[in-house]
Specification:
Two copies of one chain form a homodimer. With about 210 residues, chain A is an alpha+beta fold. Chain A is built from ten helices and five strands. Chain A has helices at about 5-10, 20-30, 45-55, 75-80, 85-95, 110-115, 120-125, 130-155, 165-175, 205-210; strands at about 65-70, 100-105, 160, 180-190, 210. Chain A is globular. At the A-B interface, helix 1, helix 2, helix 3, strand 1 and helix 8 of A face helix 2, helix 3, strand 1, helix 8 and strand 3 of B. Chains A, B: GO terms for molecular function: oxidoreductase activity. Chains A, B: Pfam families: Nitroreductase.
């Protein structure tokens, strides 16, 4: 395992072609699995905040950072969320230690004077363009969902992302005031080791997805 | 630095709340910066393939893995790409060691019999629904762009993501046959250490982006 400061200098390339230790690559990607059943262990707000504090540094267009999180904890809130999930996902939301509704905020422009001071004028230009703001928010927030899933795993947590849901229903249920737009629901916890995980699904090879010009 | 197997067991929580070493958290997020100027050092196909091999394990809806990469290397191809970038991004594309056009493939369903054998029938159901396929492809491919940016950094590379471009122009220029839809262009290389980086832009705090119910 690589443990010296050359990791940060990007000078260290083991045979895997990576600059991080193998067990980190395993934790974040290679051994990580989508999880459906969790232990009852609690996931605290402090853990979620630590993950967010890490991944908020990931790049977004114009530094808009439009991802928002609804942390669903109480039995009442779980039931409200489960009612808008596809049937196969309902029990998972009710049983998970915590569920996150990950959403895009079309009102991100209100923060631009702080987030992108040199483009503060853009906030005014975007104000009368709600559709463009929603599109911008969705695009960058989805990048941030990618960072967040990696970040949750970097905190030793397991995730179960789900897109089988009535997004408009969730928006009406929880975001009528904020105007947030739900993208994905992610259950978070520690995987229940009971039972054998099903075999891992295949992925495409680099040669199948990349072309060089 | 944490180097033992408890990292993988998720049992190791230093004060930062993370299960990865601090220098990894720095490399992937906290010290990583969007880079505009790179050294001339080459980025090889082997490096890019190693990154893809890592991040392809990240979750996508129904395991559709719809992200595609156009690796732009030759001077001729760079010029064709630069012509569709916003003016402020043209010189960056011409100067970078390599530029990746990251795209979504609405034809992902052709791979479903391999990627999701238990849902092979879905491929036929999606065939006559190009708009739904494009929407599905964009959503999951953007998650994968998030994974890929983290993965490039995990390989010790620096990235310069750019969305200031004529996406339709790029699609017509490069993807008329494949039907891929460009999402983002990312320059990849090693940051040129010359000059002082500008101060880091602010981010929102957890309390600004999260609500609990």
């Amino acid at each position: 395992m690589t443990t010296d400061s050359t990791v940060l200098d990007g000078l260290d390339f083991p045979t895997s072609g990576l600059a991080v230790p193998d067990d980190v690559a395993d934790l974040l990607f290679r051994q990580a699995r989508t999880v459906g059943a969790f232990t009852p262990e609690e996931v605290t707000d402090e853990q979620l905040a630590a993950v967010y504090d890490l991944v908020r540094w990931g790049p977004t267009a114009l530094n808009t950072v439009p991802l928002r999180l609804l942390v669903v904890r109480t039995p009442e809130a779980r039931a409200r969320l489960a009612a808008h999930m596809n049937e196969s996902n309902r029990e998972r939301v009710l049983a998970a230690p915590v569920s996150l509704v990950l959403a895009a905020d079309p009102g991100f422009h209100a923060h631009l004077p702080v987030l992108a001071p040199h483009m503060a004028a853009l906030a005014d230009a975007l104000e009368p363009q709600p559709e463009q703001r929603e599109q911008m928010a969705r695009t960058s927030a989805l990048l941030q969902v990618g960072y967040l899933i990696v970040g949750l795993r970097a905190a030793g947590l397991d995730v179960g992302p789900m897109s089988g849901m009535d997004a408009h229903g969730i928006d009406a249920e929880f975001f009528a005031e904020s105007g947030w737009r739900s993208l994905l629901v992610v259950n978070v916890g520690r995987r229940d080791g009971v039972g054998t995980p099903h075999p891992r699904a295949a992925r495409l090879d680099y040669d199948q997805v990349a072309r060089t010009v």
